[in-house]
Specification:
Layout (H helix, E strand, L loop, with lengths): L7 H10 L11 E6 L6 E3 L4 H14 L4 E8 L12 E2 L13 E9 L6 H13 L2 H4 L2 E4 L4 E11 L13 H7 L3 H27 L3 H17 L3 H15 L6 H22 L2
Helix pairs in contact: 6-7, 6-9, 7-8, 8-9
Organism: Salinispira pacifica
Protein name: HPt domain-containing protein
Pfam family, one: Hpt
């Protein structure tokens, strides 16, 4: 199971260990390679790993049997436009240019099915179905397909883990040395944050994305104020998804936020006055 909030390096490493999985009959092979740079990105969308693997499965259905996947950050690899490039490119959404991207370069070979006349139209349909989240581009020749996917990410300081301490109380005590203020801040978080989740759901159900964005932005700040780093990071991802109008993924991301919030609340109950 790939953690939905895994940063790029962890995501790529986990993908590399997974067996090939496709819809297609017969065997095919996948080789994964990824940059070990110092960046720590995590995809904005919670289903990125599944989207990539499903796309490879659909391509395998077209008769390709060998895949080489190179994963890197946008800072490490320029987007190549050499050769004949096909695209169903849509309009850039607000905020896209402010976010880092991760490039998935996929070399597919050993094609055994489909006449070349059919292949291009089938590939175009596959790419159109993934345009919103993967921004796929491809070059195709008689036996080889070169695919480029570009996934929006957010840069994070990924020092807090799901199996670790959800709130760094030692760091909070360093920031707030006044004991009364420390206790007041913790109590305010415990009193107000669950209500923010309820308000977020009401705003989202009404289609008020702007209000939902405002609420999760506030929750993100509150989490950072008490040194609940992972909760703040997850809220940041949801904030970005709303900002670029990917509301279809917002409920999945909220589920991650709620689970982490419960960990934070339980921890505060056990470890604070």
């Amino acid at each position: 199971m790939i953690p939905a909030d895994a940063p790029l390096e962890e995501l790529a490493s986990t993908l590399a260990k997974l067996p090939a999985d496709a819809h297609s009959e017969g065997n095919f092979s996948v080789q994964w390679a990824f940059s070990q740079g110092k960046f720590q990105y995590t995809p904005v969308f919670s289903d990125t790993a599944e989207l990539i693997r499903d796309l490879l499965g659909d391509i395998a259905d077209l008769g390709y049997r060998s895949f080489t996947v190179q994963i890197s950050s946008s800072a490490e690899q320029e987007d190549s436009t050499a050769g004949r490039e096909n695209s169903t490119a849509g309009q850039e959404k607000p905020g896209d240019h402010q976010l880092p991207r991760v490039r998935y370069q996929v070399q597919c070979s050993r094609r055994t099915l489909y006449a070349s006349g059919d292949l291009d139209s089938v590939l175009r349909q596959l790419m159109e179905n993934r345009e919103e989240k993967l921004s796929p581009r491809y070059d195709v020749s008689q036996y080889t397909l070169h695919l480029r996917c570009s996934v929006l990410c957010t840069e994070i300081e990924y020092s807090a883990r799901e199996d670790g301490v959800p709130v760094d109380l030692d760091e909070l005590k360093k920031k707030i040395q006044d004991g009364d203020m420390y206790r007041t801040m913790i109590q305010l978080f415990k009193d107000k944050t669950p209500q923010r989740i309820i308000e977020w759901k009401k705003a989202f159900q009404k289609g008020d994305v702007q209000e939902a964005h405002r609420i999760i932005h506030s929750l993100k700040g509150s989490a950072m104020n008490i040194s609940a780093l992972r909760l703040s990071q997850l809220a940041r991802r949801l904030e970005i998804a709303l900002k670029i109008h990917h509301t279809d993924d917002a409920e999945k991301l909220l589920d991650l936020v709620e689970k982490e919030l419960q960990r934070v609340m339980d921890y505060l109950e056990r470890n604070t006055p």
